[in-house]
Amino acid sequence: MTINQGMMSSNTDMWATPQYFFNQLKEEFSFTLDVCAVPDNAKCNKYFSPEQDGLLQDWNEPFVWMNPPYGNPEHPCKKNCKKKKCVERGHHIKHYVPGIIDWMQKAYEESQKWGNTVVCLVPARTDNTWWHRYAMKGEVRLVEGRLKFNDGKGTAPFPSAVIVFGNQAKTNTLIAM
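Structure for Adenine methyltransferase, as requested:
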């Protein structure tokens, strides 16, 4: 692993929301729906699992929580694909795999469609297209320090931000830890 790989990537694009961090936000926003969850890490009683595919659902709840997969989208492989990622993974992609840009677009559009509040925990990647296209349309709350994911066992290799779309969005804020 190179230094850049260690600083900018991980073996997963799914980072379970730290409970202590979620609890702080839940005091402000009474979340009723978690749109990106698995049964082991769902933060609300009502949630969408990967099988339900939150990107295909309506998010018509007053306060929505979203901690999406952080990876980039992947397009189906072409014949004779030699992508390094496919070789490492041991298989090729046969269908489009959504990435964080798809989730951020959905979050923004759902807040506009229903007039609700969608709160998103995302990596603070201000140099990415999805950040400028969607995150900057909401309230940006930069998280001071690095979050501890996996029940506090490991510090994230990236800075985080909370993006608030909808009626509850305010001016940009720094979240102190």
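Helices lie at 3-8, 19-28, 84-89, 100-114, 129-133.
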